[in-house]
Design goal:
alpha+beta, Nuclear Transport Factor 2, Chain: A, 6-stranded mixed beta sheet, 307 residues, 12 helices, 56% helix, RNA_pol_sigma-70_dom, 2 domains, Butyryl-CoA Dehydrogenase, subunit A, domain 3
Protein backbone atom coordinates (compact mmCIF):
# COMPACT_ATOMS: atom_id res chain seq x y z
CA UNK A 1 0.00 0.00 0.00
CA UNK A 2 1.36 3.41 -0.94
CA UNK A 3 1.78 6.20 1.58
CA UNK A 4 -1.10 8.11 -0.04
CA UNK A 5 -3.41 5.08 0.09
CA UNK A 6 -2.48 4.47 3.71
CA UNK A 7 -3.30 8.08 4.56
CA UNK A 8 -6.64 8.02 2.74
CA UNK A 9 -7.65 4.91 4.64
CA UNK A 10 -6.94 6.66 7.95
CA UNK A 11 -8.35 10.08 6.96
CA UNK A 12 -11.82 9.49 8.54
CA UNK A 13 -10.20 8.65 11.89
CA UNK A 14 -7.87 11.66 11.70
CA UNK A 15 -10.74 14.04 10.93
CA UNK A 16 -12.84 12.62 13.77
CA UNK A 17 -10.00 13.08 16.26
CA UNK A 18 -9.33 16.64 15.09
CA UNK A 19 -13.01 17.63 15.07
CA UNK A 20 -13.53 16.48 18.65
CA UNK A 21 -10.46 18.39 19.82
CA UNK A 22 -11.31 21.55 17.85
CA UNK A 23 -15.11 21.61 17.52
CA UNK A 24 -14.66 23.01 14.02
CA UNK A 25 -15.13 21.25 10.70
CA UNK A 26 -12.96 23.71 8.77
CA UNK A 27 -10.14 23.67 11.33
CA UNK A 28 -10.27 19.87 11.53
CA UNK A 29 -10.01 19.60 7.73
CA UNK A 30 -7.03 21.97 7.77
CA UNK A 31 -5.36 19.90 10.52
CA UNK A 32 -5.82 16.71 8.49
CA UNK A 33 -4.37 18.37 5.38
CA UNK A 34 -1.35 19.60 7.37
CA UNK A 35 -0.90 16.07 8.72
CA UNK A 36 -0.73 14.74 5.16
CA UNK A 37 1.87 17.33 4.15
CA UNK A 38 4.06 16.32 7.08
CA UNK A 39 3.59 12.62 6.37
CA UNK A 40 4.37 13.09 2.69
CA UNK A 41 7.63 14.86 3.47
CA UNK A 42 8.66 12.58 6.36
CA UNK A 43 11.62 10.22 6.03
CA UNK A 44 11.29 6.52 6.81
CA UNK A 45 7.76 5.20 7.12
CA UNK A 46 6.68 4.53 10.72
CA UNK A 47 5.99 1.07 12.11
CA UNK A 48 2.36 2.07 12.76
CA UNK A 49 0.89 4.64 10.40
CA UNK A 50 -2.22 4.89 12.60
CA UNK A 51 -0.25 5.74 15.74
CA UNK A 52 2.05 8.12 13.89
CA UNK A 53 -0.66 10.03 12.01
CA UNK A 54 -2.96 10.18 15.04
CA UNK A 55 -0.11 11.70 17.03
CA UNK A 56 0.65 14.27 14.33
CA UNK A 57 -2.98 15.38 13.90
CA UNK A 58 -3.38 15.56 17.69
CA UNK A 59 -0.34 17.82 18.11
CA UNK A 60 -1.48 20.07 15.28
CA UNK A 61 -4.99 20.25 16.77
CA UNK A 62 -3.65 21.14 20.23
CA UNK A 63 -1.66 24.03 18.75
CA UNK A 64 -4.67 25.27 16.77
CA UNK A 65 -6.94 24.98 19.83
CA UNK A 66 -4.61 27.10 21.95
CA UNK A 67 -4.83 29.98 19.49
CA UNK A 68 -8.55 29.41 18.82
CA UNK A 69 -9.34 29.81 22.53
CA UNK A 70 -8.30 33.45 22.41
CA UNK A 71 -10.67 34.07 19.50
CA UNK A 72 -13.49 32.25 21.26
CA UNK A 73 -13.10 34.46 24.33
CA UNK A 74 -13.81 37.45 22.06
CA UNK A 75 -16.70 35.75 20.26
CA UNK A 76 -19.97 37.68 20.05
CA UNK A 77 -22.72 35.85 21.96
CA UNK A 78 -22.86 32.12 22.57
CA UNK A 79 -20.25 29.92 20.86
CA UNK A 80 -21.31 26.49 19.57
CA UNK A 81 -19.24 23.95 17.63
CA UNK A 82 -19.65 23.86 13.87
CA UNK A 83 -22.51 21.44 13.13
CA UNK A 84 -21.49 18.05 11.74
CA UNK A 85 -24.12 16.11 9.80
CA UNK A 86 -22.17 12.85 9.52
CA UNK A 87 -19.09 11.51 11.29
CA UNK A 88 -16.88 9.84 8.64
CA UNK A 89 -15.32 7.41 11.13
CA UNK A 90 -17.10 4.29 12.37
CA UNK A 91 -15.99 1.67 14.87
CA UNK A 92 -18.68 -0.79 16.01
CA UNK A 93 -16.74 -1.58 19.18
CA UNK A 94 -16.75 2.09 20.23
CA UNK A 95 -20.03 3.27 18.71
CA UNK A 96 -21.46 4.46 22.04
CA UNK A 97 -18.36 6.52 22.91
CA UNK A 98 -18.16 7.97 19.42
CA UNK A 99 -21.82 8.99 19.34
CA UNK A 100 -21.84 10.39 22.88
CA UNK A 101 -18.72 12.50 22.28
CA UNK A 102 -20.13 14.04 19.11
CA UNK A 103 -23.16 15.79 20.64
CA UNK A 104 -23.16 19.57 20.98
CA UNK A 105 -23.50 19.21 24.75
CA UNK A 106 -20.41 16.97 24.99
CA UNK A 107 -18.35 19.22 22.73
CA UNK A 108 -19.29 22.25 24.83
CA UNK A 109 -18.20 20.37 27.95
CA UNK A 110 -14.88 19.56 26.26
CA UNK A 111 -14.39 23.32 25.85
CA UNK A 112 -13.98 23.53 29.64
CA UNK A 113 -10.95 21.25 29.59
CA UNK A 114 -7.39 22.37 28.96
CA UNK A 115 -6.10 21.53 25.45
CA UNK A 116 -4.00 18.66 26.86
CA UNK A 117 -6.89 17.26 28.92
CA UNK A 118 -9.15 17.47 25.90
CA UNK A 119 -6.69 15.67 23.64
CA UNK A 120 -6.04 12.93 26.20
CA UNK A 121 -9.76 12.43 26.80
CA UNK A 122 -10.52 12.21 23.08
CA UNK A 123 -7.73 9.74 22.34
CA UNK A 124 -8.22 7.57 25.41
CA UNK A 125 -11.92 7.69 26.28
CA UNK A 126 -13.44 8.19 22.83
CA UNK A 127 -11.08 6.32 20.50
CA UNK A 128 -9.61 3.82 22.98
CA UNK A 129 -5.90 4.49 22.37
CA UNK A 130 -3.49 2.91 24.84
CA UNK A 131 -1.60 5.22 27.18
CA UNK A 132 1.75 4.66 25.41
CA UNK A 133 0.25 6.05 22.18
CA UNK A 134 -1.56 8.84 24.05
CA UNK A 135 1.68 9.84 25.77
CA UNK A 136 3.52 9.89 22.46
CA UNK A 137 0.79 11.99 20.84
CA UNK A 138 0.69 14.74 23.48
CA UNK A 139 4.36 14.67 24.49
CA UNK A 140 3.83 13.78 28.15
CA UNK A 141 4.69 10.77 30.28
CA UNK A 142 2.21 7.91 30.64
CA UNK A 143 1.79 8.77 34.32
CA UNK A 144 0.98 12.38 33.48
CA UNK A 145 -1.50 11.25 30.81
CA UNK A 146 -3.24 8.98 33.30
CA UNK A 147 -3.68 11.96 35.63
CA UNK A 148 -4.93 14.13 32.76
CA UNK A 149 -7.42 11.40 31.80
CA UNK A 150 -8.75 11.11 35.35
CA UNK A 151 -9.24 14.88 35.64
CA UNK A 152 -10.89 15.11 32.23
CA UNK A 153 -13.22 12.18 32.92
CA UNK A 154 -14.23 13.69 36.26
CA UNK A 155 -15.11 17.03 34.63
CA UNK A 156 -17.07 15.35 31.84
CA UNK A 157 -18.98 13.00 34.17
CA UNK A 158 -19.89 15.88 36.50
CA UNK A 159 -21.02 18.14 33.70
CA UNK A 160 -24.14 16.43 32.47
CA UNK A 161 -26.32 13.36 32.56
CA UNK A 162 -26.11 11.03 29.57
CA UNK A 163 -28.65 11.37 26.79
CA UNK A 164 -31.29 8.81 25.96
CA UNK A 165 -29.53 5.55 25.15
CA UNK A 166 -32.45 4.26 23.08
CA UNK A 167 -31.81 5.70 19.62
CA UNK A 168 -35.17 4.55 18.25
CA UNK A 169 -37.09 6.26 21.07
CA UNK A 170 -35.10 9.45 20.54
CA UNK A 171 -35.79 9.45 16.80
CA UNK A 172 -39.49 8.77 17.38
CA UNK A 173 -39.69 11.73 19.76
CA UNK A 174 -37.89 13.95 17.26
CA UNK A 175 -40.30 12.85 14.51
CA UNK A 176 -43.29 13.83 16.64
CA UNK A 177 -41.60 17.12 17.48
CA UNK A 178 -41.00 18.11 13.85
CA UNK A 179 -44.52 17.06 12.89
CA UNK A 180 -45.93 19.33 15.60
CA UNK A 181 -43.48 22.07 14.63
CA UNK A 182 -44.35 22.14 10.93
CA UNK A 183 -48.04 22.08 11.82
CA UNK A 184 -47.62 24.97 14.27
CA UNK A 185 -49.19 22.84 17.01
CA UNK A 186 -48.41 24.74 20.22
CA UNK A 187 -49.99 22.17 22.55
CA UNK A 188 -48.25 19.29 20.78
CA UNK A 189 -44.89 21.04 21.04
CA UNK A 190 -45.36 21.89 24.71
CA UNK A 191 -46.05 18.25 25.56
CA UNK A 192 -42.71 17.21 24.02
CA UNK A 193 -40.61 19.89 25.71
CA UNK A 194 -39.12 19.66 29.20
CA UNK A 195 -40.54 22.19 31.63
CA UNK A 196 -37.24 24.13 31.62
CA UNK A 197 -36.57 23.71 27.88
CA UNK A 198 -34.44 26.35 26.18
CA UNK A 199 -34.01 27.67 22.65
CA UNK A 200 -30.53 29.19 22.20
CA UNK A 201 -28.58 30.33 19.16
CA UNK A 202 -25.08 31.03 17.91
CA UNK A 203 -25.01 33.87 15.39
CA UNK A 204 -21.52 35.19 16.09
CA UNK A 205 -22.83 38.69 15.50
CA UNK A 206 -23.06 37.86 11.79
CA UNK A 207 -26.69 36.75 11.62
CA UNK A 208 -29.93 37.55 13.45
CA UNK A 209 -30.24 35.86 16.84
CA UNK A 210 -33.34 33.97 15.76
CA UNK A 211 -35.02 32.64 18.91
CA UNK A 212 -32.20 33.65 21.20
CA UNK A 213 -32.70 33.05 24.91
CA UNK A 214 -36.25 31.66 24.99
CA UNK A 215 -36.84 29.51 28.08
CA UNK A 216 -39.69 27.42 29.47
CA UNK A 217 -41.84 24.90 27.60
CA UNK A 218 -44.76 27.26 26.99
CA UNK A 219 -42.56 30.13 25.76
CA UNK A 220 -40.46 27.90 23.50
CA UNK A 221 -43.57 26.20 22.04
CA UNK A 222 -45.16 29.58 21.24
CA UNK A 223 -41.94 30.92 19.72
CA UNK A 224 -41.57 27.85 17.50
CA UNK A 225 -45.19 27.85 16.38
CA UNK A 226 -45.02 31.58 15.57
CA UNK A 227 -41.86 31.05 13.53
CA UNK A 228 -42.73 28.08 11.38
CA UNK A 229 -45.86 29.08 9.46
CA UNK A 230 -44.52 32.31 7.91
CA UNK A 231 -41.17 30.61 7.22
CA UNK A 232 -42.92 27.85 5.27
CA UNK A 233 -45.14 30.42 3.53
CA UNK A 234 -42.11 32.18 2.03
CA UNK A 235 -40.83 28.85 0.65
CA UNK A 236 -38.61 27.84 3.55
CA UNK A 237 -37.92 24.15 4.11
CA UNK A 238 -37.30 22.30 7.38
CA UNK A 239 -35.21 19.22 6.64
CA UNK A 240 -35.02 16.84 9.65
CA UNK A 241 -31.67 15.06 9.87
CA UNK A 242 -29.02 13.99 12.36
CA UNK A 243 -26.80 16.81 13.62
CA UNK A 244 -23.79 15.89 15.75
CA UNK A 245 -25.22 12.44 16.32
CA UNK A 246 -28.46 13.86 17.76
CA UNK A 247 -31.87 14.58 16.20
CA UNK A 248 -31.85 17.88 14.37
CA UNK A 249 -32.69 19.73 11.20
CA UNK A 250 -31.33 21.97 8.48
CA UNK A 251 -33.41 25.03 7.59
CA UNK A 252 -33.19 26.11 3.94
CA UNK A 253 -34.58 29.07 2.04
CA UNK A 254 -36.69 28.72 -1.11
CA UNK A 255 -33.53 28.27 -3.20
CA UNK A 256 -32.19 25.46 -1.01
CA UNK A 257 -29.54 27.56 0.69
CA UNK A 258 -28.75 26.89 4.35
CA UNK A 259 -30.25 29.35 6.84
CA UNK A 260 -29.33 27.52 10.05
CA UNK A 261 -29.12 24.13 11.73
CA UNK A 262 -30.89 22.80 14.80
CA UNK A 263 -29.78 20.09 17.20
CA UNK A 264 -32.01 18.69 19.95
CA UNK A 265 -30.87 17.48 23.38
CA UNK A 266 -33.19 14.70 24.55
CA UNK A 267 -33.35 13.47 28.14
CA UNK A 268 -36.00 11.56 30.10
CA UNK A 269 -38.34 11.47 27.12
CA UNK A 270 -38.40 15.24 26.64
CA UNK A 271 -36.50 17.82 24.60
CA UNK A 272 -34.30 19.78 26.97
CA UNK A 273 -32.47 22.13 24.63
CA UNK A 274 -32.68 23.33 21.03
CA UNK A 275 -29.38 24.74 19.78
CA UNK A 276 -29.43 26.64 16.52
CA UNK A 277 -26.33 27.69 14.56
CA UNK A 278 -26.88 30.76 12.36
CA UNK A 279 -23.32 32.07 11.99
CA UNK A 280 -22.69 31.80 8.22
CA UNK A 281 -18.99 31.12 8.84
CA UNK A 282 -19.99 27.80 10.45
CA UNK A 283 -22.40 26.60 7.75
CA UNK A 284 -20.44 26.63 4.50
CA UNK A 285 -19.59 22.92 4.73
CA UNK A 286 -23.31 22.08 4.95
CA UNK A 287 -24.09 23.79 1.63
CA UNK A 288 -24.49 27.22 0.00
CA UNK A 289 -25.41 29.68 2.75
CA UNK A 290 -28.48 31.93 2.68
CA UNK A 291 -28.69 35.56 3.73
CA UNK A 292 -30.26 34.91 7.14
CA UNK A 293 -31.04 38.60 7.69
CA UNK A 294 -33.14 38.68 4.51
CA UNK A 295 -34.88 35.41 5.38
CA UNK A 296 -35.79 36.60 8.88
CA UNK A 297 -37.04 39.96 7.58
CA UNK A 298 -39.20 38.23 4.96
CA UNK A 299 -40.48 35.77 7.56
CA UNK A 300 -41.35 38.64 9.91
CA UNK A 301 -43.27 40.46 7.16
CA UNK A 302 -45.16 37.28 6.32
CA UNK A 303 -46.04 36.82 10.00
CA UNK A 304 -47.39 40.38 10.25
CA UNK A 305 -49.44 39.92 7.08
CA UNK A 306 -50.92 36.61 8.16
CA UNK A 307 -51.45 37.90 11.70
Amino acid sequence: MSRAEEFQELRPLLFSIAYRILGSVSEAEDAVQETWLRYESAGARPVSAKAYLSAVVTRISIDVLRSARIRREQYVGLWFPEPLLADPYEDPERSAELADSLSMAALLLLERLSPLERAVFVLREVFGFGFPDVASAVGRSEAACRQLAVRARRHMDAGRPRFEADRREREELAGRFFDAFTEGDVDGLRELLAADAQLVSDSGGKAPRWGQGVAGAANVARALATLVRPFLEIGGVVEPCEVNGQPGAVFRDRDGRVVNTWSLDVLDGRIQMIRTVLNPDKLGHVGPVADAWAVVQETTRAHRTSG
